[in-house]
Write a structure and sequence with these properties.
Structural class: alpha/beta
Number of strands: 9
Distance between the termini: 36 Å
CATH topology: Rossmann fold
CATH architecture: 3-Layer(aba) Sandwich
Number of domains: 1
Largest sheet: 5 strands, mixed, barrel
Order of helices and strands: HEEEEHEEHEHEHEH
């Protein structure tokens, strides 16, 4: 269809005009992880509201900027703030920036999020490598007409998170003395946190952590042949019925406390990819 790429091309043209270099790695920062940007040698910051067709992040803990620069010897582009289905965006808007980053030239995508712990062995502040996900509770971002320039109609999802990257993260964590958990991320729409019964259901269905992001971004990355690594910061433990209330402020605080270890893993990952 003529014009199906127009929105992407307009965003791409704008960004190439303000930043002429091609980034190698794309990063999406989750809630409370925005200080990771302090490690970046920033060359250009672009507010989302300046980029054609970009949504605007509305969630506290998300800065709402696309940041270009250098980290660990690589050119990177970093989303300081992502978009969520629960904000009222459709799935096309949620994944729009991932498509644009791929068009900018990235060869790998690193995703992060704050997630609720479902595995009873987890504790607040743990870092969990996402080895797989369950997306049945979220709308698939590929519903609708397939844009063949991005990928095939029925993409394979047998390795949504690249095993080579997962092994790199294991080796890095061992070298740095950081304990990493591993598990399945269960995607839900939010914005409500889960009930105790929902946590039990998710645990029964194989989830180790639950969150309101990441899955749709991972799907479109795989659609475009873009390898993905993803990591969750466990910010609360939903399986404990004595802890009856979860607040966004507590989630942000837990993420900030875990951020130094998270940043160390991501820095090394970028150097080795």
């Amino acid at each position: 269809m003529p014009g199906e790429m127009q929105k992407f091309n307009e965003a791409l043209s704008y960004l190439k005009a303000v930043y002429p270099h091609a980034p190698e790695i794309g990063i999406v920062l989750g809630s409370g992880l925005g200080n990771f940007i302090d490690d970046v040698e920033i060359e250009k910051e672009v507010s989302y509201d300046q980029i054609p067709h970009f949504p605007v992040s509305t969630v506290e803990g998300h800065k709402g900027k696309l940041i270009f620069g250098n980290l660990s010897g690589k050119k990177i582009v970093c989303m300081a703030g992502r978009f969520h289905f629960y904000e009222g965006y459709d799935t096309e808007q949620v994944v729009f920036p991932v498509r644009v980053m791929k068009l900018l030239g990235i060869k790998a995508l690193l995703l992060s999020n704050a997630a609720g712990g479902v595995n009873p062995n987890f504790k607040v502040g743990d870092l969990m490598i996402i080895t797989d996900h369950v997306s049945f509770f979220m709308q698939n971002p590929l519903i609708g007409k397939n844009i063949s320039g991005f990928g095939i109609r029925f993409p394979d999802m047998s390795e949504p998170y690249k095993k080579e990257f997962i092994q790199k993260a294991r080796n890095i964590a061992k070298k740095l003395g950081i304990v990493l958990r591993e598990g399945v991320y269960y995607g839900v729409t939010g914005p409500t946190y889960e009930t105790h019964a929902e946590y039990k259901l998710i645990h029964t269905l194989g989830g180790d952590a639950v969150g309101m992001s990441t899955v749709q971004e991972c799907i479109v990355a795989n659609h475009m042949g873009l390898p993905v690594f993803a990591m969750s910061v466990i910010t609360d433990i939903g399986m404990r019925e004595d802890e009856t209330r979860i607040t966004h402020e507590e989630v942000l605080q837990a993420a900030r406390q875990a951020e130094p270890s998270f940043a160390a893993i991501f820095r090394e990952m970028i150097a080795e990819i």
